[in-house]
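Q: Here's a chain of 261 amino acids. Please give me its 3D structure as tokens.
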Amino acid sequence: YFSNEHPKKVGNGGWLTYECISTAIQMNYDVTGYLVTQDDVILSIHQIRDLPKDKIWYNSFTRQHIGDFTPGKRVKECLRGICDVKPLWYWWSASFPSIIKVLKRLHKLQHSDLLVKQCYQNLVNLTGGEHRVIIGYSDVLYIPKHLAQKARHLYKIFREELVFIEIATPMVLNCLQHPREQYHFTGIALWEGSYRNMPWIFFSTNIMNDAFYLHPAKWSYIDVCPDFSAHTNHRNFFCYEVLSWLHDKEGDLRKIYNMGF
């Protein structure tokens, strides 16, 4: 999906980039499904042809977190079924108003919308409570065609309440297909620490043969990087390592394009 709008306008600076997913689904092309990646992901494309196209692809549920937003109580994270963990994720507090709104709306809509009713009950069963939400990194995912319109319908509800993508996406995907029925890929996620801006340390042909993705790897850092001494490293990484690796996989690319993604 390509948009003429400025990225910050389309996805509210990345907060609501699932707008692009919904718009692509609305186009209703004759495709197998919808593969979504963020712009700072290196995808191990040669693995795609062997993955199940009728299942959702997402992170393992063990890598997701549940937050408890029971009215009148402070926000807590749940661990092993016990919700008494002090929340460490920054977006819990930043997302609090939108989370409360969407939970109330889902609770109300379940009485008039069959899909929402099924979704709501699935989430309650999965999280163990009516006032709980799921967070999960959403830089790479895949939605099969047979679930796409349902996903679009649900995403619209979360979009109208301005729910952050890393809350909206695991909520939508896990309510449409139970985690045990999904395909869970492995990847390299450099979320914190000094290595976050040094993706070349973790990149090699052997590593990428096993890992489905590497994140983050920001093309913009070729010119503008928080560590100004790293411009040359980023340029060399993308120009000589990543592009060379992709060129070696050129035949795989042609096969993937022919699949109808």
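Q: Can you summarize the key feature?
A: Confidence is low (pLDDT under 50) at residues 1-11, 253-257.
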